[in-house]
Amino acid sequence: MREYLEKNYLNEETTIKSWLFTVDHKRIGLMYLFAIMFFFAVGGFLALMMRLELLTPAGGDILDKNTYNVFYTLHGAIMIFMFIIPSVPAAMGNIIMPIMLGTKDVAFPRLNLASWYVYVVGSSIGIFSIISGGVDTGWTFYTPYSSSTDTAVISMTFAVLVLGFSSIFTGINFIVTIHKMRAPGITWFSMPLFVWSLYATALIQILATPVIAVTMLLLIMERTFQVGIFDPAMGGDPVLFQHFFWFYSHPAVYIMILPGMGIISELISTFSKKKIFGYTYIAASTMAIALFGFLVWGHHMFTSQSEFAALIFSIITYLTALPSGVKIFNWLATLYKAKISYEAPMLYAINFLLLFAIGGLTGIFLGTLSVDIMLHDTYFVVAHFHYVMMGGTVIAFLGGLHYWWPKIWGRMYSEKWARISAILIFFGFNLTFIPQFIMGSLGMPRRYWQYDGLVNTDIFHFYHQLSTLGSWFIAVSFIIMLVYLVHSIKYGKVAGSNPWGALTLEWQTPSPAPAHNFLEEPKITHGPYDYDKVEVERTID
Amino acid sequence: MSKETTPYFQHHFVDPEQQYESSKLGMWAFLVTEVLTFAGFFCAYAIYRMWNPEMFINAHKALDVTMGATNTVVLITSSLTMALAIRYVQVNKPKVALVHLILTFLFACTFLVIKYFEYEHKFHCGHLPGALYNPHVYPDCIPIEGNNPHVFFSIYFMMTGLHGIHVIAGMVLILWLIFRTHKGHFTSAYYTPVEMVGLFWHLVDLIWIYLFPLLYLIG
């Protein structure tokens, strides 16, 4: 059954107005996808420029020192608040999750559209702050520097506040959809694991995001009226800012990684054609990570709290490794003795397993108090963070993008180029960030514009060169990806309803899906991973 | 909520019951975010009161307990009229419900008027947040001793100010309900918006019930 649904959600109406006022979750998800990819490109460009600047130990090759500060701040703020946080939930989740649950739409379609507009407004304010000089505080906006620097802190923090609302809207929508809108026959424990991960994410979104909103509001107040909450000169407490900030921003790390883990569960089961090992444990570990996520914010502040508090936070941080480990081992057990087909989405899943394992394990180093004394504020932290966020979330996002691409557009991309680009990213990523681990452990501080005259400058120079070289490999593979993906929208082979032979519900409807997701009411005849009971034919060769 | 369809039934739900249940869960989830928003301020309040206990006690004397208490009564009563309005829609008495919605709106206005006079007095005395703090030596203004009294007024103005913004938002929503009730949109078969705004209004009331003792009654 290899056909292309002639009248589908993409072409049922084609006016610009029909897109701007759509309440279809698939169209909204697609609009999110375009928006976040734009910001991913902007953030990536900033990263490339910084890496070029670090090619030589001297400062001022292509960026002056203030520009460099602005670039790393914007790279962080854009990538986190405008790309990663909405990437998997608001883009991929929006498109796929309601179909997975066999429903026509999310619970509140207009709120869903509103969330996209709020996102666009928030991002526009962010762009305004870039145009009006940018911000040089780092993406964490620590006081008292952020309450005294004369850069555009107010507009950037206001942008973060507004983006938070968009995130909350998505969270509320997903929670209600998952609770109330599941098709008859889909129980909590027969939902796809991707939906579980979106559920845990949505809980964090509504529980943590309001706190960043208050924090940003207080920071704006501090700058406008010197209210004396965060500014020590006015009787305030800068450490309170750190507590508030990390009370959101640590759980936010799980807003970023959990949906990625959900994608990996789908990919691994589909491409090894095996029932996922330990479904209940993966679902439970998802919820456990969400819970632990709220209890470890203090490990970002080991130096600004009592030793006893640091000790407690260090112990709980160790505990978070357990549910992550549960996931990794369940995935490996699923792969054990399976007939794995190594197509592009699966290559990303394997990328994820390797890179996330490195990212997760180096996190334990940083959670260890004595080791952290040496490693904090070095490139080790930068590398750890990128292994988890880029090697984890971004790689999982790309896996999901390739996996669901035929569902979104009804056409296949070039498998050959997709594999080349996936392997190139893996190579480039490690070339970029392994040197950063080494440099960090040798003491190269983060956020330095130039590193001339240090004891280890020669060694650092060598590793920075490798790292910059790697960053260009990543850039090239993204350009390749852009070309073959865009090409496939028009010229790709027709994919058919189920190119991977997968069992979750989104593959039982034509590609691209019709406007209300299903041509007839979906029938639930098997669980999402019952590969031992059901055999499904793939609609591509 | 019955299974019969209403003109307000949205096609992506299976039945009106599912629609109603979804709205309610969504509203509760939203209220959770509201509570957490205020939680940040309550946390800041707790820390600065712990740091400057004496200043807090001195500064709170500048607040007018009578006005605060009156406002508490006004808001609690408005919560009652709001709850009654929901009840009267449920039993198909939209006209009585309309009266109660109008009463709720008037109580909200009363709250804001009283709040205006309180704020006015703070401006008069120069008891203002942060850098604007500039106490005058007028006979009707008490001097405040202790460290950083401007922090108390920062917290006072930000908390009551954010709460006041919520009161105004609630008033806009109640006006919308008055309009729709007047048009005859709500019956025992469909009253979701009335109940949702009711939930929001109770939260606004509840937050004030915490603000009042923490700011006015700590002596």
- How many extended strands of chain B? 0
> Which stretches of chain B of 5+ consecutive residues score pLDDT under 50?
none
- Write down the domain tally of chain A: 1
State the major sheet of chain A: none
Helical content of chain A stands at 55-70%
Tell me the greatest interface: A-B, 40 and 34 residues
The CATH architecture term of chain A is Up-down Bundle
> How many domains make up the 3D coordinates of chain B?
1
Structural class of chain A: mainly alpha
Name the beta content range of chain A. under 5%
Relevant CATH superfamily of chain A:
Cytochrome c oxidase-like, subunit I domain
The separation of the N and C termini of chain A measures 12 Å
CATH class of chain A: Mainly Alpha
N to C succession of SSEs of chain B: HHHHHH
Order of helices and strands of chain A: HHHHHHHHHHHHHHH
Structure description:
The complex is a heterodimer of chains A (541) and B (219). Chain A has helices at residues 16-20, 25-53, 65-100, 109-131, 145-148, 153-180, 193-225, 238-272, 279-293, 307-335, 344-367, 369-375, 379-409, 415-441, 457-491. Chain A is an all-alpha fold and 541 residues long. Chain A has a single domain, classed as Cytochrome C Oxidase, Chain A. Chain A is globular and about 65 Å long. Chain A starts with 15 loop residues before the first helix and ends in a 50-residue tail after the last helix. With 219 residues, chain B is mostly helical. Chain B has one domain (16-216): Cytochrome c oxidase, subunit III, four-helix bundle (Four Helix Bundle (Hemerythrin (Met), subunit A)). Chain B has helices at residues 16-51, 53-60, 65-90, 94-125, 149-182, 192-216. In chain B, α5 (149-182) runs antiparallel to α6. Classes of the chains: A mainly alpha (541), B mainly alpha (219). At the A-B interface, α6 and α7 of A face α1 and α5 of B.
